[in-house]
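Treating backbone geometry as a discrete language has practical consequences that deserve illustration. The sequence in question and its structure tokens are set out directly beneath this paragraph.
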Amino acid sequence: MKTIAAIAATAALAIAAPAFAASVEVEYKDLDLTTEAGQAQLEDRLDDAARQVCGMDQIQTGTRIRSREARDCYAGAKAQLSQQIATLVEKQKTAKGG
């Protein structure tokens, strides 16, 4: 089963925000990452996972503004996940001979 442990690579962020979940697995075996559509779907899945792990969708009483920790976690997670996506895309392209 091909999955990305979304945010597993962001252990430092999880430690900085201990109220958040440690990781979420994101399936990608059904996606063709050599296409823009497949990459966009993976990006959406990873965005959802980062939002979940970092608590971006948790509403705090009295405000709609996300906590600083959640915003920092999310930004860091997205940056690290972008690097993982690039690696996965390259692996699939190489495997297909392209």
